Predict the structure.
Amino acid sequence: MRTRLVGWWIAAASLLTVGLEAQITIPSTLPPTARAGGNIRATPPQGPLPRQANERPHLTGLWLRQGGTGNISQGLPKGETMPLLPATLKRMQALMAKDDPQLHCLPLAAPRGNPYPFRIVETPTHLFILNESMHGFRQVFMDGRTHPADVDPSWHGHSIGRWEGDTLVVDTVGFNDLTWFDNYGHLHSDKLHTIERFTRTDLGSLTIEITIDDPGAYSRPFTLTFPASLMPGHELMEYMCEENNQDVAFIEGPAAPGAR
C-alpha cells in the first residue's frame, strides 16, 4: 500500500481540529518550489524490455515520473537555462504562489509533472495517459490522422502519435495559455507545440524527452528529459480536488522567487 503526503493538505486539515486550536500554529506555506508534494516512491523492477507481438515495446503500465514538478528547468541539459522572452519573465515575476492553476483544481497539461503516478493504456487506434492528479486524462490518436487545420484551444491540446523505432513520438498542438509548466510558474502561450518521446529502456525504466517550441513565450525551442519508473502491483488512487481547496488562503509568497 503506497501512501502520499502533501504539506498543504495537512495545513488545511488542521483547521478542522477544533479541540486542538490552542496547540496548533499554522505555518505560512512556502513558495511552490518547496511544496512539490508527495512522498510516493517507486522501486522499478529489473528485467529485459517487454515487447508486443509486433516487436514494439510495451508501454502499458503504471509509471511515476521523477523531477520537474517544482521547476521543469531541472530537466534541461547541464549548463542550459530557460530561454525566456523578456515579456514572459516579467509575467512570471508578477505571479503569486496562490495563482497556481493546480491550486484551483484546473488541469495539469504537459510538460507539467506531478508527484503522483500516471497510467499508459495502449489500443490499436488510441493511446491514453491517465493521470492520478486531478483525475486528468489525455488521448493520443494512433490511427495515422493529422492535426486539424483549425484546432480549438484546449487544456491538453490535440495529440497524434507515431512510432520511430522503439520510441513513441507524441506531437501536440492546440493548447490554451491557461496552464503553468510547473510550480515555479513557467508560463507558455497558445502557440505552444510539444513533441514528447517515450522510450522504454528496460522492464522498469521509461525515459521521457519533451521538446518545447513556443515562440510566444520562449526565444528558441528547448528540450527537457525526465526518467520514470514502473510501479507494478499498484493502482491509481482517487484524487478529488473539485472547487474546495481550503488551503489557498494560506499559500504565500511569489510563485517564482528569484526569477531572472
Summary: The chain has one domain: 7-43+58-250. Strands lie at 61-65, 118-122, 126-131, 137-141, 158-164, 167-173, 193-200, 205-213, 222-230.
